[in-house]
């Protein structure tokens, strides 16, 4: 076999000599010019069977129609490459080369046109490659009529081709076909694009702009057996033709967040996907329908192989892994929202002036209200995605919904802990310095303190949104990512601050209890009630913080003691304890709140008797307080057991805290 290699016997066109000899010993009559390649009829005298043409770095612009026809039985390979001059391949340029097996067109960046049926009737063609050209539309590769098995078509690095039209490969070959369509500018694959083909393998990798793969794109085709869509922008797969697929490769396809119905993948045996949740969908899928009673299939049932496998952070389960949690989270979220909403409404509509305890309670109720919103979001999404979470996991965890839920829960929990600590310190300060009015905490001081708390809580909640940990790691949208040292430090800092806050609360309540004890008097029922009240407050804080902090700190140091599935029990049963209990312990169960509530209801014509009773009692208490203040002449202290621990009751400790008005 004689090789005609134009890379070495090349076309020496220079600025001074525009015409050259190109076929040397094989054909002295073929020549090239700046217009095109020409081989006249007389060239047949120089035919050489088994001819391989390699045209590299030539300077002509056009390959004319049927230019190789006089060698139609001799040429077995044509390689065109490394030419910046070639602009057009005309109609039927390579047609009817009966023994041509390989045709390559590469690195011709100015080639913008390949004529109609330029590759027609090439029965022995096995390999066609069109790469790194300037083509603006998909080349006409129809009617090749190849009869070879395993025909391979490569079209890649053509950045200006944006669509694959209908019937793009029709009558190309009659046997199995492999399409390698890499790194093109594809944005859309039209319906019936692969009509009339027997697809063995279809590679669409690295078409980063490919967004639309029409549902009917594979209609009329048999196959593909293997489909690869690595690094594309596809957000869905076509619904027709998936039954042939045995191997699906969709790695780095971050937009593909939802898969078609699983029964479409009737023959799938291997899947390499982007997200672990998609593998959950295929966990128990069989190769064939269970109704097919094939002996070998029944004796040796096969399950498909799927990667990446679900990890510890994303197990194959719904958001609320247990049914009892699915019920409880609704109850707890509604309780937290309703309780805190009532407290906020009563406080903000009360005609009594805003005191420090009231102001702090407003902040606490708002923080706990946000926790209720978080729980309601989680419960709603769990209900919506039940039994099909694998198809919604990526949209949820990477979307704005999960980010909003995570922001709500971190912001609310930190603001709640901060406000509880301030309330406890304010109680301790009020009781410790009850007779020193000059040391009383003023409202403006409380506002400044809470502004600091809001800034701190907002900052802590925003950090995962800017890359310090994140909210997308788990389905419950908590910041559990500790992959980087900064993320790990962030989680540990939050947990340590919460533990410190709990210790401060415990220390303050112990000091308060010691302060209200009068060693000269025997313990009274009021002392016992105060002690019980403190015990309840500390117990609720401990119940909320202790289990969460213990298991979270161990996980932060990469020694997890429970799974994410079990952590959801903590999320529902312990995490929101304070948010549900706070409005009752700090407001609803207090006399002052009940007074405000009944006075508010009386404006709507309800509870008038109870409201009138509270008006009378309030006037009596205010008058008595004024008399006590007028009789005060020295540093003598009253029994501290008479000091109330209820947040709203603290407003009566000073005559300066008189009500704005006593009637409605």
Automatic annotation (TrEMBL):
Record's bilayer topology term: Multi-pass membrane protein
Compartments, record wording: Cell membrane
Name of the protein described by the UniProt record: Lutropin-choriogonadotropic hormone receptor
Gene Ontology CC annotations of this record: plasma membrane
SUPFAM superfamilies: Family A G protein-coupled receptor-like, L domain-like
Keyword Transmembrane attached: yes
Gene from which this protein is expressed: LHCGR
Signal sequence range: 1-21
InterPro entries referenced in this protein's UniProt entry, alphabetically: GPCR_Rhodpsn (IPR000276), GPCR_Rhodpsn_7TM (IPR017452), Gphrmn_rcpt_fam (IPR002131), LRR_5 (IPR026906), LRR_dom_sf (IPR032675), LSH_rcpt (IPR002273)
Domain G-protein coupled receptors family 1 profile positions: 339-586
Function recorded in the entry: Receptor for lutropin-choriogonadotropic hormone. The activity of this receptor is mediated by G proteins which activate adenylate cyclase.
Organism: Eleutherodactylus coqui (Puerto Rican coqui)
Any Gene Ontology biological process: adenylate cyclase-activating G protein-coupled receptor signaling pathway
Bilayer-spanning residue ranges: 327-348, 360-381, 404-425, 446-469, 489-514, 535-557, 569-589
GO molecular function: G protein-coupled peptide receptor activity; luteinizing hormone receptor activity
Family statement: Belongs to the G-protein coupled receptor 1 family. FSH/LSH/TSH subfamily.
Keyword terms: Cell membrane, Disulfide bond, G-protein coupled receptor, Leucine-rich repeat, Membrane, Receptor, Repeat, Signal, Transducer, Transmembrane, Transmembrane helix
């Amino acid at each position: 076999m004689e090789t005609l290699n134009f890379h070495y016997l090349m076309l020496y066109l220079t600025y001074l000599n525009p015409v050259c000899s190109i076929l040397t010993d094989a054909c002295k009559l073929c020549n090239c010019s700046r217009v095109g390649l020409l081989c006249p009829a007389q060239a047949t005298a120089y035919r050489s069977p088994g001819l391989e043409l390699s045209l590299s770095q030539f300077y002509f612009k056009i390959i004319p129609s049927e230019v190789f026809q006089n060698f139609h039985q001799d040429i077995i390979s044509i390689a065109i490459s490394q030419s910046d001059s070639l602009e057009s391949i005309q109609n039927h340029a390579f047609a009817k080369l009966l023994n041509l097996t390989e045709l390559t067109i590469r690195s011709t960046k100015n080639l913008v046109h390949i004529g109609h049926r330029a590759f027609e009737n090439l029965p022995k063609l096995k390999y066609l490659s069109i790469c790194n050209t300037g083509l603006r539309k998909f080349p006409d590769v129809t009617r090749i009529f190849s009869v070879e098995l395993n025909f391979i078509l490569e079209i890649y690095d053509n950045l200006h081709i944006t669509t694959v039209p209908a019937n793009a490969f029709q009558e190309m070959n009659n046997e199995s076909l492999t399409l390698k369509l890499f790194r093109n500018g594809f944005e859309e694959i039209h319906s019936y694009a692969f009509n009339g083909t027997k697809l063995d393998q279809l590679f669409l990798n690295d078409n980063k702009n490919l967004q639309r793969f029409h549902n009917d794109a594979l209609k009329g085709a048999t196959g593909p057996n293997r489909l690869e869509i690595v690094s594309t922008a596809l957000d869905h797969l076509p619904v027709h033709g998936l039954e042939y697929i045995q191997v699906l490769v969709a790695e780095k396809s971050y937009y593909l967040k939802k898969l078609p119905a699983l029964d479409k993948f009737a023959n799938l045996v291997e899947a390499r996907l982007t997200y672990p949740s998609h593998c959950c969908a295929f966990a128990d899928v069989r190769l064939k329908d269970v109704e097919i009673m094939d002996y070998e299939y029944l004796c040796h049932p096969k399950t498909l192989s799927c990667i990446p496998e679900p990890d510890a952070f994303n197990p194959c389960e719904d958001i609320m892994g247990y049914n009892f949690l699915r019920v409880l989270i609704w109850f707890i979220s509604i309780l937290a929202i309703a309780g805190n909403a009532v407290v906020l409404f009563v406080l903000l509509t009360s005609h009594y002036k805003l005191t420090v305890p009231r102001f702090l309670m407003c902040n606490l109720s708002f923080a706990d209200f946000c926790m209720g919103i978080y729980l309601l979001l989680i419960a709603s999404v769990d209900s919506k995605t039940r039994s099909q979470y694998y198809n919604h996991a990526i949209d949820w965890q990477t979307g704005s919904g999960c980010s909003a839920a995570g922001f709500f829960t971190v912001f609310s929990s930190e603001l709640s802990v901060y406000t509880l600590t301030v309330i406890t310190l304010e109680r301790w300060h009020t009781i410790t310095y009850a007779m020193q009015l000059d040391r009383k905490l003023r409202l403006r001081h409380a506002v400044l303190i809470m502004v600091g708390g809001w800034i701190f809580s907002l900052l802590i909640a925003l950090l995962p949104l800017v890359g310090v940990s994140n909210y997308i790691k788990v389905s419950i949208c908590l910041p559990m990512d500790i992959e980087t040292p900064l993320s790990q430090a962030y989680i540990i800092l939050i947990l340590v601050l919460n533990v410190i806050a709990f210790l401060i609360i415990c220390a303050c309540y112990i000091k308060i209890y010691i302060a209200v004890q009068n060693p000269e008097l025997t313990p009274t029922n009021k002392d016992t009630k105060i002690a019980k009240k403190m015990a309840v407050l500390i117990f609720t804080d401990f119940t909320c913080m202790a289990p969460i902090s213990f298991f979270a700190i161990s996980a932060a140091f990469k020694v997890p003691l429970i799974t994410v599935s079990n952590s959801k029990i903590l999320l529902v049963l312990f995490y929101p304890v304070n948010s549900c209990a706070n409005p009752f312990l700090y407001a609803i169960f207090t006399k002052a709140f009940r007074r405000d509530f009944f006075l508010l209801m009386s404006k709507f014509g309800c509870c008038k008797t109870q409201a009138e009773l509270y008006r009378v009692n309030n006037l009596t208490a205010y008058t008595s307080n004024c008399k006590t203040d007028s009789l005060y002449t020295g540093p003598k202290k009253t029994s501290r057991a008479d000091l109330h621990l209820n947040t709203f009751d603290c407003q009566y400790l000073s005559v300066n805290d008189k009500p704005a008005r006593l009637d409605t």
